[in-house]
Amino acid sequence: MSAIRPPILLIHGIDDTAGIFHALKAYLRDRGWNDVHTLDLQPNNGDIGLDMLAAQVQQYINQRLSASSQIDLVGFSMGGIVGRYYLQRLGGLQKVRRFVTLSSPHNGTWTGYLRTNPGAKQMRPNSDFLKDLNTTVDELKQVEFTSIWTPFDLMIVPPSSSQLPVGNMIQLPILAHPFMVSDARSLATLAALLSHGLAEPPEEISYHPKISA
Q1: At 61, which helix (H) or strand (E)?
Q2: Domain count, the chain
Q3: pLDDT at 198
Q4: What pLDDT, on a 0 to 100 scale, did the predictor assign at position 159?
Q5: Residues of the chain with pLDDT under 70
Q6: What is the domain range of residue 172?
C-alpha cells in the first residue's frame, strides 16, 4: 500500500517563476507525489519585500491547501527565506510538517549588493530583516527542517550562508546554483527527505552526501 503523502509547495527564487521546478515536479510525481504545488511570486525581482512575498505564500496555502492538515514546504534560494518568514512570522509553523531549503541565503549573500530594491537589501549579510529572523531561528525546531547547499555556489556568497544552526544540513557537490533544482543528486536527496517518516521507505541514494546536525 502506498503511503499517504502530504501536499508539497515549492517556492522559487529571485527572477525565477514556477517553471524552474519543471524537472523537480516531474521527478516527485514519478515517485508517488500527486499533490505538488507551485506559485508565481509577484513581482519576482525583489521590488517588494520578502515579507510581502511570504504573504502571497500564506494566501495560496489558505486558499488552495486549507483542507490539508499539514504540508511540506520547499524553498529554493530566495524562496527559502520567503518560506522562513511564512513559518516564523505568519503562523506557518502550525501548518508545515517538513521544511527544506535549497541554497538559501539564511545569513545573507554579497550578491544582494548588486541591486538596491527592497528584496535584495533584505538578503544582504547582516540585514535587519535576516537578523530579526535569526533571533528566533530556534522556532524552526518545531518542524523537520533541512538546509541543502553546495560549496560551489556563486549566487549565495559565501556559500556557507545557506547553513543554519538548527535541523540538518546536507552538502552536495553541485557545480552551480540553478542546478540545485535539477541535478539528480539534489532531486534524490530531496525525495528521500520528503519520504522520511512515511509508511514506505525513502528512495535509496546511491552516493553519500555530507550531513550534519
Answers
A1: helix 50-64
A2: 1
A3: 53
A4: 97
A5: 1-3, 197-213
A6: 8-212
Query: β-strands 96-102, 210-212: how paired?
Result: unpaired
The closest of 59, 60, 56 to 119, measured between CA atoms, is: 56
| Cell matching residue 170 | 546536507
CATH number assigned to the domain comprising residue 95: 3.40.50.1820
In a domain, 162, yes or no: yes
| Cα dihedral across residues 70, 213, 79, 206: positive or negative | negative
How far does CA 5 lie from the centroid of its chain?
18
Distance CA 105, CA 175 (A): 17
pLDDT score, position 208: 43
pLDDT at 170: 97
**What is the predicted pLDDT for the residue at 211?**
56
**Predicted pLDDT at 120:** 98
For residue 145, the cross-strand partners are 99
Q: How far is CA 89 from the centre of its chain?
A: 16
Q: What integer pLDDT is reported at residue 68 of this predicted model? A: 79
Domain assignment present for 39? yes
Instruction: List helix spans (H) across the chain.
Output: 22-30, 50-64, 78-89, 118-122, 128-135, 184-195
Range 86-125 burial, b when 16+ CB lie within 10 A, else e: bbbbbebbebbbbbbbbbbbbbbbebbeebeeebbbbbbb
Check residue 2 and give its pLDDT: 52
